[in-house]
Amino acid sequence: MRLTCTVNGTPQQVDDVWEGESLLYVLRERMGLPGSKNACEQGECGSCTVYLDGLPVCACLVAAGQAQGREVGTVEGLAGEDGLHPVQEAFLEAGAVQCGFCTPGLLVATDDLVRRARDEGRRPADAEIREALAGNLCRCTGYEKILDAVRLAADRMAGDAR
Questions:
Q1: Helix 103-119 / helix 144-157 crossing angle, nearest 10 deg
Q2: What's the longest Cα–Cα distance across the chain?
Q3: Is the pLDDT of residue 162 over 50?
Q4: Looking at residue 64, what DSSP letter applies?
Q5: Does residue 144 sit in helix, strand or coil?
Q6: In terms of C-beta density within 10 A (0-12 exposed, 13-18 middle, 19 or more buried), how is residue 81 classed?
Q7: What residues does the 2Fe-2S ferredoxin-type domain cover (predicted)?
Q8: CA 137, CA 135: separation in Å to the nearest integer?
Q9: What is the pLDDT of residue 29?
């Protein structure tokens, strides 16, 4: 089958997609977007989190055909022409990036949380941060630096219209 969708704002077309292929596989192997990681393949770790029509999903659980005609946003799409996204900068500055395997999913989940909170005119509370990131597993950081990064990103994005 032919898959046509928009990825990070750019129309994409991939031919000969097998109906059992995951969106994650198509993004990584066919579109050359390796940011989202292939870890558990069961939707348990969050390393493959992407946006599908503006909602975070585990790309390993989404059949590629489900993305037909839809908008997909990956971690590669967070950064703009003017540099890193504030969430990416916060993760670097807070030391929340170690091996980097969980980082793409955490960045997308953090962006989603912080944007939703900002749109409501507030910053996320610690309990809300923990809940929003509960589906993202990290084996390196112990999570405190990740929480620090989310708080830092929320502070920086509070007045940002991104």
A1: 40
A2: 45
A3: no
A4: G
A5: helix
A6: exposed
A7: 1-78
A8: 6
A9: 97
Q: Do 153 and 114 contact (CB within 8 A), yes or no?
A: yes
Residue 51 to residue 7: CA distance in whole angstroms: 10
Contacts (Cβ under 8 Å, ≥6 apart) of 137: 44, 45, 46, 47, 102
Encode 101-128: b = buried (16+ Cβ within 10 Å), e = exposed.
bbbbbbbbbbbbbbbebbeeeebbeeee
pLDDT digits (tens, 9 = 90+) for 41-95: 999 999 999 999 999 999 999 999 999 999 999 999 999 989 999 999 999 999 9
Tokens of 42: 């069961």
pLDDT confidence of residue 160 = 58
The values of phi and psi at residue 83, to 5°, are 125, -165
Q: Which helix (H) or strand (E) holds 18?
A: none
* 27 pLDDT higher than 60: yes
Q: How far apart are CA 67 and CA 119, in angstroms?
A: 26
**What pLDDT, in 10s, does the model give residues 100-157?**
899 999 999 999 999 999 999 999 999 999 999 999 999 887 899 999 999 999 999 9
CA distance 106 to 102: 6
Q: What is the DSSP string of 26-38?
A: IIIIIS--TTS--
